[in-house]
Each structure stands twice: as C-alpha cells, then as structure tokens.
Amino acid sequence: MAEAADFQGTSPSPARRRSRRTAALLAGAPLLASLVQLPAAGSAHAGAPASPQAAPGGGTVAVAVDSLSPAAPTDGDTVTVSGTVTNTGKRTVTDAQVDLRVGSRLGTRSRIDTVAKNSDDLGGSLGAQVGDKYAEKFPKLTPGVAEHFNISVPVDELDLGEDGVYEFAVSLSGQTSAQPWQRVLGVQRTFLPWQPDEAGTRTKTTYLWPLVSTAHMTAETDSNEQQTRVFRNEDLAKEISPGGRLNQMVALGTGLDVTWVVDPDLLASVDAMARGYQVRGADGTTVAGTHQAVAKQWLADLQKAVADKEVVALPFADPDLASLAHNGTDVTGSLSRLKDATDVVTNTVETILHVKPVTDFAWPVEGAVDPSIVKVATSAGADKVIARSDSLEETSGLSYTPSAARPIGGGTTAVVADARLSTAFRGDLTDASASTLAVQRFLAQSLALGLQTGKQRSVVVAPQRMPTGSQARAMAEALTALQDGTWSESQELTAAAAAEPDPKATTKVPPASAYPSSLRRQELPRSAFEQIARTQGKLDKFRVVLSDESRVVTPFGRSMDREMSASWRGRSAQAASFRTGVERYLDSLAGQVRLIDKSETKLSGRSATIPVTVQNNLVQGVDRLVLRLTSTNPTRLKIDGSDYQEQPVAVSGGHSQSVKFTTSANANGQATVVAQLYTEDGQKYGEAVTFDVKVTEITATVMLVIGGGALLLVLAGFRMYTQRKRAAARGGEEDGPGAAEDAADGPENPDEPEDRLREHGAGSRAEDPEQPSDPAPDTPVESTDPSGTGERVDR
C-alpha cells in the first residue's frame, strides 16, 4: 500500500514549541563552550572512542524487552522498561551497561516494517543514549546467565519532538578480554508512539474478536429423548476451562470495545456440553463427560460479555468459502449445504446468547478473495465480504490508507481489513519480549496510519481466526492502550461497512490467478465435496422412512456443515477421517432397518405363504417402506400369480415385522426368490435378501400309487357286484322266484362278502375316499430361521 512521505497536520502546540526552543538554547550553551576546549579534550582521550560503538557482525548479548509501560505515553508520564540481557557468547562481558536510546521519527508505515524486521541488528542506527542517569550497570555478564534490568525515565527526558512514531531501543554495551574496550554487544529495537494531545480527527477502528474453534461434536447422539451429544474428545472442555484459549478470549474481550465474531457451531457445542454429553474414547466406547459446569459458566460469562455489543455470526461451522468456490461448486448440493449452514445461524445464536446477530457478513480465509469466492460468499445471502488489504491491493497510488468499505459491484461491499494491523499478533507470543514487541508495533502502525492525513477514515482489523492464549493477551493489551490513547476511537463493523467509501480506493476484485498458492494448497479437495454429497444422498434416502426425521437430519446436517469448515486447513488427514466417520455412522444407522436373512424354504404343495421379516433396531419407528418379493423363475414359482408382489411395511422402533407373500408352484424343483426393501419413490433401501425355495409338489411316483389304489377300488367294487349277482342267481334256482328276489336284496349272511374282501386285501370301506382330482390343501412353509439377535438399538 502506498505510504505518505511525511505526517501531515501534526504540528505541536505553540506552548510546547516555545518550551522546546528554550530547552534547546539551554542545552546548546555548554556545547558552545566546549568547542573552545575541543583540541585539548581530543588529545586527552586519543585512541579511545567517545561513546560505545557497535560491534561488527551480530551481537553476543541477547537483549529482551519484556515490558514497556505505558505503551503510548503522554506528557507527564514515566516510561518504565524492563527485561533481560543474556550473554550468548563464550567470554565474560565486563563493565556492562544497559542504555535506553531514542532514534529518529519514522515517517511512513513501511519504515516501521523495516525497523521491526531488523530489530536486533547492530549494523543499523542505534539512536542517541538517553543518558547514564537512566541506565543500569552490571560488573560482569557470565555466559548463559540472564540478568534482569528495570529502567524508568520521565518522558520529558526522552526529548521527543512532534507527534509520531519514534524508534526506541535498549542496548547493552561492555567489553571482553579479547576486546577490552566499550562497544555495543546487543540491542533490541521497538517503537514509542507519541501523540500526547488529542488528535483533531480520530481514526475509527473496528477490531474483530473471533470466537471460532474446530469441530468437536460427532454426528452420533445417544438414543435417549434428549439425544445426548457425543464428542470426539475433551479438547473443547480444555479450551473453555479457566486458563484455556476460549476462556481467555471471553475474559479479555469483556472489557474491550470490539465486534464479536462467533461461529454458531462453537455455541451449539458448548451448549450441548452444558446439557450433559458423552465422549468417544480411543477404544470406541463412550463415557460421560465431566465438564458440564465449566460449559455453563463459560456460556454465562459470554452472555454477559456480549449483552450490549455487536455480534456477527458466521455460517454454521465457519465453512471454507474459498475451497467451496474453487473445488465444490460443480458438485451437486454444495451450495445448498452453505445455504443450510446460513439458515440455522440466527436461531442458534439468539437461543444461546439472547442477542440478535448480524448475519450478512462473509469472511473468507485470510481475507483473500477472487471473483468466484465473492460469488459463493454472497450466494447464501451475505452482501458484505471481509477482505484484506494484501488481497484487495491499492492500484491508484494513494499516499494513505483508505477507509475499509469498498463497493465491488452487484450490491456487494468489500470490507477491507488492514493487513499490517491484522497480522500484528501472529507467531509464538508466549515469550514476554515477543508479545511486547508485537504490541508496540501494532500501536506504531495504528498511529502512523492516523497521521497520514487529516481526513477521518474507518479502519478494520481482522486477526487470525483462532488466536492462542498468548496472542489474545497481546491483542487485549494493545487494544486497551489504543482505546485509552488519543488518536483512535472504536467503531462497530456494521458502521465501518456503511461508511462512505473513498472514491480513489480500488474496487477491483483480483483475478483467480492472484489467489495465494500457499492458501490454495490447504483447501479442501473436490473429493471432499463429493463425499459430502454422497453422505447427503444417503441421508435423503434414510430420512423418508423415519417417523421422526429430525432426530437424524439435524445432527447429520450439522456434521456435514463441519465437514466444510475452514478449520480443516492444514489438517487434511483429520478432515478425511471426520468425513468418513460421519458417512460410516449414517450407514450403520440405516443398516438398523434391514431384512433378516433366510435359509432355503420348502413348499410341499401347490400353494403356500412365505414370510419375510423386516427388523428395525432404531429407537423410532419406520414407515413408508415397500417390501418387494420377486421370483427369478416365475414359470416354476409365482408370487401372488405374478413375477413379484409388493407390500407396504411399517415397523415400530426396536421391533420386527413379518410380511407374508402368497406363492403358487407350477413345477417341481428349486426357484430363487429375492426380497428387497424400497422407499416410496422407488429407491432401493438396504441390501437385498436372496434365498431358494424348493418345490416338492406331487411327484410321478405318488401319482402312480394313487392311480393304482383307485384301480384296485374299482376292481374290488366290480368283483363284489358280480359275486352278488351270481349268488342271487344261484339262490333263485334253488328257492324259486321269490327266493331269488329276496336274494337280490342282499346276502343272507351279511358277513360273507366282507370276509371275502379281506381275503383279497381290499381293506375296510372308506367313508369319504379322497379323489385324485381334489386340490391339495394349503400347506404352510417350513419354519424359517428366527430373526437374528437384535443389534444395538440406536438412532
């Protein structure tokens, strides 16, 4: 970004200018007097330097500035600097002295960057010593031993000039046995922002305070009425416990004028913990979580912190907009997933925090944008995109940093965060010295920005999404100093977005080719979005058969939102594992509704009924399912007179239901039957069950036996008839016509024909003999295998 050559409109007050001129005259009098004695003085100290010189190359003493207070002093303040000096060389340093040095006024923001980059370089300018009165001496510095120093100096003694940013350094001078003369052996440069009087025009500064974390909840929930959530581990509990990262973010942010930026997934996760939760162990078992009270306290503290502050809510789980734009838009359903993640935001945040959130901001990773990212970011309803100035760079040669708001077309506003301020607290700031340097650099850049022009501007600071605890503490320290300072005032993000844009500021979104390759390498691949789409398809098929689909749709829908989270950047293996875990768990739930396997079934007649059992191990009932039984050989076996038959299925939770199908056999032998569940729209559900049906209808041998038995009956009846006729004829010859007629009515001895029948093996008379033409009775199917042991009842 272009810089101003000098600060504008920053002249000190007349009273101060007069006092400084008087001080300069008084200070100059001894100097004039000394000029007369200069030759003599020079001869008295021939060969010895008048002041310590910098050692060639790198220093052998490490200087750490652990504290500088106040960070932005004003008239009447006393500046206190504390830290350590450590001899990193191999020789003892003697006659060591820690000095404070004030360098030149830094006129541009780029010069501040240069000084910060070379903060411990002995080759650069060191600035003038404040004086021996404000120094600390050490007789010796032993190698490897750190010595603490603490120096206080009235700000008036620093001889600061007009308003601006001054280079401020702490140096260590001394000598060694190898080089027995005083020289500078170590230095640490930092910055001293100086604007003691109120600025005529204050910069309006918006600082985003992000509450974002990684994915902690799984798709799994308990089968109870409350659907107790199952967490991947206890990492979130550590973050919100006292001393944890998120606990510090809430505690530190409570007293700051910031705009809170929250991920609704984080709120939902902590709220689930507060209601009682389970934790998935490494062995796959779940145990009860133990940080319910911690979760309740964190939520209570957060509710108080945001009660009267602006809250900007990101889409649920903070989806990676750049990954979606570059790799997911061609995958069906990806943009719909983003829309769903946006639609649940308001209800989630209002229910938990009791504040109405702002939901029309999108925040791509690192504020890097291109046309496709802007298009995706606004597809779900956002009309403001938080970009960063190192992405949306100035091209018009402006000598100052313009306001954040930029209209970029289509009714969309880019809110461009300042890159220098936004990245001021990166890296490891656990060391006090690193934290102090970051704070001073941030304040220096803020003041330098404000002094570029007398025109009021709106500046936005968008730090990293998940600051560490040490980074958060440094941010809070800098913001406290800024809010107590004289050149800046706080402003909410919505106000910054609505501010009048600078007509000279760039509004052109950079092309896709300008997107940083380092960020592109961390994006979710296309395969990730394809897997999400596949899981969504399975969920759509599963939900239609459920009596209460919300118990499944909600946890799985939110889990798929987490699969698109920007927090997976740099963790591709963990991201893939999470996606696979969600899909497998959905498969296991859908598999709880299934057909019970059947062994071979035998039919011993022309027709029978075949039962097929549907098992539901879910806790809720299923309906709107259709069971189809199909014969693969309908010429041998028909199902209800056709190739197949369908019947509706409804099964209560934790139960099984047998569905009976009528079959008819046309021929003997074996036929294969396929049972398959379908949804109402004709989609297959679950695995098919295939089994064999052995038809054992009437065989040829049986027919011969039956035919032979019938023939014997006919012959026996004919013989009885002829025997009776003969007997009647004989009786008529012997007894006359009358007797013949009596004989014709029946034998005189009724047992005689029966005795003769027994002699021929005919057996007794059948009362209702079965006729071969009668249909065979329905015979039930042989007992099939019982339903398998019920698997775990789950949702």
Automatic annotation (TrEMBL):
Residue ranges, compositional bias (Acidic residues): 742-754
Any Pfam family matching the protein: DUF6049
Signal peptide (from-to): 1-46
InterPro entries for the chain: DUF6049, Ig-like_fold, TonB_box_CS
Ranges annotated as spanning the membrane: 698-718
Entry keyword Signal: yes
Keyword Ligase set for record: no
Biased composition (Basic and acidic residues): 755-768
Alphabetical UniProt keywords: Membrane, Signal, Transmembrane, Transmembrane helix
Region (Disordered): 1-21, 490-520, 729-795
Protein name per Swiss-Prot or TrEMBL: Membrane protein
Naturally occurring in which organism (per UniProt): Streptomyces leeuwenhoekii
Lineage, broadest ranks: Bacteria, Bacillati, Actinomycetota, Actinomycetes, Kitasatosporales
